[in-house]
Amino acid sequence: MKQITPITNRPSRQEYETRVQRVWRKAVERGFDAYVAMWLENVYYLSGFVYTAQERPFFLVLKDGQASFVLPRLEVDHAKEHTWITRIDSYREYPAVAGKGWADALERGLGSAKKIGIESTLPSYVREAIGRQTAIADIIQECRLVKSEWELGRIAYAAEVADTGTQTLLENSAIGVTELTLYSAGRNAMTYKIIQDMPQVNFQVTNIVAAVWIGRMSAMPHSTPSINDTIQEGQPNVSLVSLQADGYSAECERTYFVGAPDQMARELFETMMEARAIAFSLIKPGAVCGEIDRKVLDYLRAQGHADHILHRTGHGFGIGSHEAPWIAEGSEAELQVNEVVSIEPGIYIPGYGGFRHSDTVWVSPSGPVCLTESPVELDELVL
């Protein structure tokens, strides 16, 4: 089966131009004369530009198949240095004197366009300022679903970094070791690898989480571990490594033990692994996301764990660490070739512990390909 080679190079101008044309075709199909994006992830997808808007609005405008920026004068030189887009309509400041504010610059950027497509996240005050016919259509997110070959390579690299973080957490785990020690070791190892591999990394689109939900805390996956929590013998622990490396994301999570687990933990681990295997068996182009989740959760319910399910089977990766497609019972979306998803069914026993592996998985033409390669079997995860 084909594998994805991790890459660290920046995208070409052609990569960005191809993305813009894909989005523009969708805009034209919906009858739009222009499209306005403001959400950082969507702007980054089409331009490679990262900014901190704060009180000064920042827009990417698509019109006549071309991309342009509307941004404060403060960001003009920054944009010229770090993006391929050359047309910029700037405004002086916020607040600004009459005729020189962001709404005036946006008006210039839209020109004679009459029907404007907008993101669902666009603030209402911007929609009001546009003052023309607008319609919500998340066409950039639609295009982001299916990854290019370049994007797959960058996600594969992020998965490689996730494996580095996971291995570091496992290697540093021992009875009495604190959360602070594990967190520091994991983050340091991942940061060092990224800097070594990508000296020009943009830390505005680089985020790292490397921690362990220790013992009973592992049954509360969205809780916050205490830095003073310590590894105890035989307890279930869940390592969580999630990152965005220079713009693209991946994750790897593992249930593991320091010292021999008891029989209950062994049985829960094996049930989790069977649910995981069911999920992997169902990942293929054309599979309905809601059906995948239903079959996985039906298995867990049949094993007596209806009250121990806290979340869906998976979600998508790309620029975001949580994005569509959603492998959840409420989704009617079908998986497509070159989407990337997580597989992470879990079992959570209050006061005892959680059991969950999570992997970053490419939906290839022939089925799932796991991009994260950390150990998965119980005998590998009893340290």
Automatic annotation (TrEMBL):
Signal peptide residues on this chain, from the entry's feature table: none
InterPro entries in the record: Creatin/AminoP/Spt16_N, Creatinase/aminopeptidase-like, Creatinase_N, Pept_M24, Peptidase_M24B
Top-level taxon in the UniProt lineage: Bacteria
GO terms assigned for molecular function: aminopeptidase activity
Keyword Protease applies: yes
Domain Peptidase M24: 155-364
Record key words, sorted: Aminopeptidase, Hydrolase, Protease
Creatinase N-terminal domain ranges (all copies): 19-145
PANTHER family: AMINOPEPTIDASE, XAA-PRO AMINOPEPTIDASE P-RELATED
Listed name of the protein: Aminopeptidase P family protein
Biological source species: Abyssobacteria bacterium (strain SURF_5)
